[in-house]
Amino acid sequence: AALSTLSTCPRKAAVQCVVLRQYFNFDERCKTLCGIIRMWARRKNISNPSEGTISAYAFMVLVIHALQRTSPPVLPCFDVSALTALAKDGSGDVESICLQAQELLDAQAETAQHVKNHLNTQTVGPLLVHFYHHLVHFNLLEEVLSIRTLDKVIKTDKPSWYERGEPPKIAIEDPVLPKRNLFSVAHMNGFLSVVCEIEAAELLLRDKISQEQIVKRYMEANFKHDDSDDD
Question: Above 70 in pLDDT, residue 126?
Answer without folding.
Answer: yes
